[in-house]
Amino acid sequence: MIRKDVLDKGFVKLVDLLGGDDTVVRSARVSFGSGSKGEEKDRKLIAYLLAHGHETPFEHAVFQFHVKCPIFVARQWFRHRWASYNEISGRYTVFDDGEFYVPDRKRIREKVNRQGSVVADVSDEEHRAFAEAIEAECARSVAAYRKMIAEGTAKELARTILPVGMYTQFYWTVNARSLMNFIRLRCDEHAQYEMREYAGVIRDVFREKMPWTAAAFEKGSSSEG
Amino acid sequence: MIRKDVLDKGFVKLVDLLGGDDTVVRSARVSFGSGSKGEEKDRKLIAYLLAHGHETPFEHAVFQFHVKCPIFVARQWFRHRWASYNEISGRYTVFDDGEFYVPDRKRIREKVNRQGSVVADVSDEEHRAFAEAIEAECARSVAAYRKMIAEGTAKELARTILPVGMYTQFYWTVNARSLMNFIRLRCDEHAQYEMREYAGVIRDVFREKMPWTAAAFEKGSSSEG
Amino acid sequence: MIRKDVLDKGFVKLVDLLGGDDTVVRSARVSFGSGSKGEEKDRKLIAYLLAHGHETPFEHAVFQFHVKCPIFVARQWFRHRWASYNEISGRYTVFDDGEFYVPDRKRIREKVNRQGSVVADVSDEEHRAFAEAIEAECARSVAAYRKMIAEGTAKELARTILPVGMYTQFYWTVNARSLMNFIRLRCDEHAQYEMREYAGVIRDVFREKMPWTAAAFEKGSSSEG
Amino acid sequence: MIRKDVLDKGFVKLVDLLGGDDTVVRSARVSFGSGSKGEEKDRKLIAYLLAHGHETPFEHAVFQFHVKCPIFVARQWFRHRWASYNEISGRYTVFDDGEFYVPDRKRIREKVNRQGSVVADVSDEEHRAFAEAIEAECARSVAAYRKMIAEGTAKELARTILPVGMYTQFYWTVNARSLMNFIRLRCDEHAQYEMREYAGVIRDVFREKMPWTAAAFEKGSSSEG
Fold first, then answer.
1. Number of domains present in the structure of chain B
2. Same domain, residue pair D171 and D82
3. Can you give the pTM of this predicted structure?
């Protein structure tokens, strides 16, 4: 199935999929006692449903992903409660590969929009120095963690010193309605860059697997703005 | 796919399915960073998860049903909120087939357990007479409804006189965790006979499609009682 | 607390309330590590949160209602899954008051908008005749139900002939976020008249108890349309 | 209201409360069309509801907490999806107090039960040395974070090196049904020590505010084991 790399060491894999655009049409038409009526009418129906806030038919198409991302990204992700998650546990698993996120550019606080960040206007060398500083810090924490583990410390306790930039992995099962909500919030320009990188890949998968719904959804979103 | 008749005019169809026992194993093992380890170990894992209340891995297997049942059954069904529904609407659709539920036996109040009902100890003739009385009442309501529709009355208003025994239809998408909860409550002897008839069919589909989980689930349920 | 009559025999009672506008402010400011900053800034914060889709702070204010409405209204109501319900059960309770909904006007199908209905352009006498026809039908069903109960028929079975216009009662606990979604969908002109009557009362209670949020919400909703 | 310290720098505050044992009774009796019937009968009803899996009445009592805990505890906490959360954001707030969790004892891997941990059988001095090692590691990360902030690095980016032992704060609104599920899973001996410390305090608050429900719940839980 689909697998795309994200950031320096992460990925998004589409593991499985239940239905698609046709599932939306079929479940919506149950309300009227009929099924598909050809592409043109089916696409119109999907656009109508989205435009009028009839979102339940989109719950019958279900995506299943395997995601690898930094903990601080996962923490935002898991806020989406209308979905199912299973994550690698730092209590049972030694983070022995010791993978953490290293950004490739320094970003500074944005003056105008205090929520965001902008890429610092500095030399490539300075960007590299910043990345190396992050890497050095995280590597030191991981080394200390490994030492503790070697000394018999319980995994659940030793991990307390690991940085939130550590990579984690999880299974994510989510229906198309909840997925659209995820895309709306996490592809937004106010979302953090690292989050947006993942959300963009999720959106690409959504576009590929549910092209009619994705087209209607994006048209609707842009006309709102 | 699977289609089974229920009661006098109802049915349950399995429309689609995402994953199964292997999905549970795979998503649970993400916690440990591994996948399937052969049938014996995988079955043990499933039994362990259920016995210890680790229910999230079961959310990654998803069933999709098309159901036709009386309104009073649907009302209990829709109380299960961790699932998705799309139902035929009495506002847009004329119930022109006029199908309603006719029980084949009279049931009376049970003295000991005031919640339930028992089949009346009467002659076949009396049972038949009871069924005919129900049928006559509902048929009269449907006839009055049709007359109102013929006179131009809005469907959403005319339906107010239709009985709760009328058949309705809906799409139901539900994960295996929520499905087990449904089976636990609705196959229970305290549940109404008509509800149990549907829940029993759902349980049969569950057994066929997720045999390892169903076996562990039923073993666990019985040892609790 | 607040109690308002709805339709011919229904009501909405506000039983209890957790927090209000101040709860939204307080929980939102946890994100910034601060609390209330005076009415002007607090109102601005609420408007900002709504305008930018930051809806979680509104989940911390919780309403509890006791509702009496026809079954066909309750069926739409219960579709809102992010809320808690406890309803009178037709399995355990005899509907001995036999209350059902009697509309005061005939409504016919609307030609332009096939989903809705419009009040029929007929004489008061015809409206009255229509209401009497509904009443006669429902009364006949209730009489047949009572007869069955008197003959020992189980309540859960006898009720199958009762009309969906019968009144039911339930407790409803719902947070302000879910409540706004309810108001948005159920006060809409596409919603059925009887549903809108209830939703309008719910909106009035919301306006009274969370005036800042309600004002920002209604301003936002209207500018969307 | 109630405020209790947890671990070295955390706390749990009960901010607000909607209802209690009486709310459960009242909402459950809606099903039968009645209210309170005196303490003895009301307690029996609560025990009956819990014993028979009728859990919806417990959703009408709602607790609101303000919690301060390490990030790795919060991550487990947020897995409980039937609840509402608002958390301090590391994107907008500088962790300038730089508070992180320092355990007071070394815990090692348990041989028998590979999931847990046990306090190491070492001298007080060794325990102190362990705590100091944790403290030194986290302090170094915090110092590096502050330096990055001082150099203009965006908060959302600099935090990537902060350890998961950093304290965070959030608002938590949760109904009694979901709360009991939380207590069942998080007071369990298989839960991590730090999580159990919080869950124990939550359970104490629950016992104080809903004594009848808590007593029936704990009796039921123990007889299961």
1. 2
2. yes
3. 0.95
